[in-house]
Amino acid sequence: MRWQIEPGWGVLDGMLKLAQIAAERNPGKADNWRTLVLTQHQAGRAADIEDSLQRAAAALGGDLAGRRSFITLLLSTGELDRAVDEAEALFADAPQDAETYALLKSALTEAGARDRLNELGVQRDEILQISRFALNEAWETAKSDADLRALVAKCRAALATNPADAGARCFLAHGLAQLGERAEATALMASTNLLSVGDLRIPGEFDSRESFCAALADEIRHNPTLIPDPKRKATRNGRQAMHIGLKGEAALDILLRQIKHAVDDYARERQGGADPYVSQPPASVRLSSWAVIFNGTTGRQTAHMHPSGWLSGVFYVTAPREPETERHSGALLVGSPIRGLSAAAPWDITPIEPVPGRIVLFPSFVTHATEPCKVPGERICVAFDVVPTQAGHPAGETVVT
User: Fold this and answer.
1) Is the dihedral of CA 137, 338, 350, 314 positive or negative?
2) pLDDT digits (tens, 9 = 90+) for 256-301
3) What pTM was computed for the model?
4) Do the Cβ atoms of 158 and 228 come closer than 8 Å?
5) Is the backbone of residue 335 left (phi > 0), alpha (psi -120 to 50) or beta?
6) Are the CB atoms for 162 and 328 separated by under 8 Å?
7) Cβ(259)–Cβ(357) under 8 Å?
8) For residue 121, is it left (φ>0), alpha (ψ between -120 and 50) or beta?
9) How confident is the model at residue 395, as a pLDDT?
10) Residue 351: strand pairing partners
11) Do the Cβ atoms of 103 and 87 come closer than 8 Å?
12) Which of 336, 333, 339, 341 is nearest to 360 (CA)?
């Protein structure tokens, strides 16, 4: 398994300067703004992105073609909420324009706005056809056994082509469970042999696990990309740092390197095993990571999975203790079923204590959630996906909730 080479800070600073020069020299070219905004995302320059988007909107122009180009730019850089707003506004001005209508449908589909798509008269089959995560849409909109059987057939076909398709395996298990095929559903979602729980090795730069976690917590608290309850994510009543390992975040940079070593060990130990999902690891991967902070007793993660990943995981930085038991509060619930499963999940749900310094690894098809903390206090973790980079694998880090 080969890790995608990430540019160093010196290279990234150079890329950013080149992108700025290109946008200034040819501001009417939408691709120049796309490159600039994506590079700013990669460099963690969240404060600069809004300014770039405002300049792009002005440069691309207020006519129909310019506004369409700006919406396409927003979609390609992950600015989904703004893309929907801009597309709705343009559709109100040009309701007969076919390209505008298509852009609006794309924006609404990316944002998961099925109610609005229904208002526009978009049929279910068309919604599924244009959805990036069609299996998720098929599960969420299934109304009958016939719908579920069609979902199961799609999942089996996808897994025949790619046994490591996380979305197909997850929704096959959920569809079979809904149809009463409990034994096969349990075998598909069983994670005991594929779950890894252990303590991350203390890096040599720190003298103790406590000092390492303290440095990580400080960097996460000051991360400039922290936002409360980001849309289309599983975080509830917490804050999520959308980009970590930024320039100056030395402890986080070390942690991300340690995580890669742990993933390499996981893949090596399971290569050639009985389960086709992990028996042949992806040839090339990248690490997508973020951090979450919960305070108080209401913060939690709803049940979800990660359709774009091969392997997912979490490293615990801080968690409060319960006075009666001395256990760290806010357990990870591995196997917690996603909503829509009318009967209880036939597979086991495994609770894992969020001990600071602990790393948990599991296949990305495994659904998971967290319990709220039972006592006040700060719970901080770093979560991540190992995402295959070969052609044909779905892009993005959108979670299914």
Assistant:
1) positive
2) 999 999 999 999 999 888 899 999 899 999 999 999 999 888 888 8
3) 0.86
4) no
5) left
6) no
7) no
8) left
9) 39
10) 333
11) yes
12) 333
Q: Are 13 and 246 in contact (CB under 8 A)?
A: no
d(CA 173, CA 163): 14
3-state secondary structure the chain: CEECCCCCHHHHHHHHHHHHHHHHHCCCCHHHHHHHHHHHHHCCCHHHHHHHHHHHHHHHCCCHHHHHHHHHHHHHCCCHHHHHHHHHHHHHHCCCCHHHHHHHHHHHHHCCCHHHHHHCCCCHHHHHHHCCCHHHHHHHHCCCHHHHHHHHHHHHHHHHHCCCCHHHHHHHHHHHHHCCCHHHHHHHHCCCCCCEEEECCCCCCCCCHHHHHHHHHHHHHCCCCEEECCCCCCEECEEEECCCCCCCCHHHHHHHHHHHHHHHHHHHHHCCCCCHHHHCCCCEEEEEEEEEEEECCCCEECCEECCCCCEEEEEEEECCECCCCCCECCCEEECCCCCCCCCCCCCCCEEECCCCCEEEEEECCCCEEECCCCCCCEEEEEEEEEEECCCCCCCCCCCEC
CA atoms within 13 A on the CB side of 210: 0
Mean pLDDT, rounded, for 331-355: 87
Residue with token string 């320039």: 247
Query: What's the number of CA atoms in the CB half-sphere (13 Å) around residue 280?
Result: 6
Q: pLDDT tens across 41-94, in order?
A: 888 787 799 999 999 999 999 999 999 999 999 998 888 889 999 999 999 999
Token match 């980009």: residue? 243
Q: For 157-191, how does the pLDDT look when each residue is reduced to its tens digit (9 = 90+)? A: 999 999 999 999 999 999 999 999 999 999 998 76
Cβ neighbours of residue 92 closer than 8 Å, sequence gap 6 or more: none
Q: Which among 27, 31, 113, 112 is positioned nearest to 76, based on CA atoms?
A: 31
In one-letter notation, the amino acid at residue 71 is I
**Cβ count near 239 (within 10 Å):** 21
Could you give the CA distance from residue 194 to residue 230 in angstroms, rounded to a whole number?
A: 29
